[in-house]
């Protein structure tokens, strides 16, 4: 295959992967908002457990059909990943509960520099000046769009730190495990989803009761609420899979930068659905800055020296499975 066509194919797959993540992520936000606001199902951690249970069923069906072959992931690696992932879910829920919207958004923005630090120290990644500046522009732009009131308290700060670091570690680990074990997204999800489903379904109801003072077993499961729960679980399969695909292709930092485009898209979508309420000059300025920063980041990180591994390579094992969508290991990311 000619290099140009190979590069074009990779670019097309990158765009398709990101669009898949955007569509499923925005879709699940809309469905979950309807589920929680309209039908009062406020048990977010239990719902996440149901999401992973549905994802587990999907991977089992694909394995039964022969699309996924058995792969090996050491128990220690699996437990570390699940620990980071569950702390991420719980930490984000607590951070949202204990912090103002402004500080919660700042905490989410800080995942980009934290992910950068992880790549610098663990993967020996080196960023060019332009790449660093483009990330700063993205942070400023999204911050201008989303940050309103900012108030900090001790327990909220602790929750935010746990949420940011655990989420960044979980996203880094997705990319790390796919590279180290040459494992596709379906295969990795087949290992992690069952353990996450089991732990969240066991601990979720207790945690949700602590957050909401409501018991999930006393909820009125009518036809409409069960339909939205089922729809949320169905979309979550795509959301979980697309996250693994994107991080496998883009790395955690690039995924975070591209992820903030979803914030901009949600704001624009809200403008068209709800009118001009909430749209003002500083929001428009923030959108423009963020989009410019994302375009700059894409160009800067793809140039020679923009973002590269200094002298480090991960050990790889023989590739398994017929559904492998990880990008090729490369010194440039």
Automatic annotation (TrEMBL):
Residues 302-333 are annotated as: Disordered. It is a multi-pass membrane protein. It is found in: Membrane. GO terms for molecular function: antiporter activity; UDP-galactose transmembrane transporter activity. The chain crosses the membrane at residues 12-31, 43-66, 78-96, 133-150, 156-174, 186-207, 219-241, 253-275, 281-300. InterPro entries: Sugar_P_trans_dom, TPT_transporter. Residues 313-326 have a biased composition (Polar residues). One of its GO terms (cellular component) is Golgi apparatus. One of its GO terms (biological process) is transmembrane transport. Residues 23-297 form the Sugar phosphate transporter domain. Its main location: membrane. Keywords: Membrane, Transmembrane, Transmembrane helix. PANTHER family: SOLUTE CARRIER FAMILY 35 (PTHR11132). This is Sugar phosphate transporter domain-containing protein. It comes from Amborella trichopoda.
């Amino acid at each position: 295959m000619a290099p140009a066509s190979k590069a074009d194919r990779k670019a097309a797959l990158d765009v398709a992967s990101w669009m898949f993540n955007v569509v499923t992520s925005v879709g699940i936000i809309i469905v979950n908002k309807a589920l929680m606001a309209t039908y009062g199902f406020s048990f977010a951690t239990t719902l996440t457990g149901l999401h992973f249970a549905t994802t587990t069923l999907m991977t089992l069906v694909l394995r039964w059909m022969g699309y996924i072959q058995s792969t090996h992931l050491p128990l220690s690696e699996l437990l570390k990943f699940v620990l980071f992932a569950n702390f991420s879910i719980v930490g984000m829920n607590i951070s949202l509960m204990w912090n103002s919207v402004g500080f919660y958004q700042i905490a989410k923005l800080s995942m980009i520099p934290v992910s950068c630090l992880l790549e610098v120290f663990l993967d020996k990644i080196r960023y060019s000046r332009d790449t660093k500046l483009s990330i700063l522009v993205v942070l400023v732009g999204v911050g201008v769009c989303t940050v309103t009131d900012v108030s900090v308290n001790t327990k909220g700060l602790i929750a935010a730190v746990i949420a940011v670091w655990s989420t960044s570690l979980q996203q880094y680990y997705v990319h790390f495990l796919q590279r180290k074990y040459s494992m596709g997204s379906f295969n990795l999800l087949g290992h992690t989803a069952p353990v996450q489903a089991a732990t969240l379904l066991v601990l979720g109801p207790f945690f949700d009761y602590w957050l909401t003072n409501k018991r999930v077993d006393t909820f009125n499961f009518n036809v409409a609420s069960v339909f939205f729960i089922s729809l949320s679980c169905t979309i979550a399969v795509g959301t979980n899979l697309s996250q693994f695909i994107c991080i496998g292709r883009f790395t955690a930092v690039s995924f975070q930068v591209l992820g903030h485009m979803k914030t901009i898209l949600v704001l624009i979508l809200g403008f068209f659905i709800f009118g001009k309420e909430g749209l003002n000059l500083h929001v428009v300025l923030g959108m423009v800055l963020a989009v410019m920063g994302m375009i700059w980041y894409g160009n800067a990180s793809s140039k020679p020296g923009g973002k590269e591994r200094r002298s480090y390579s991960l050990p790889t094992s023989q590739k398994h499975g017929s559904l492998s969508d990880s990008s090729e290991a490369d010194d440039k990311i």
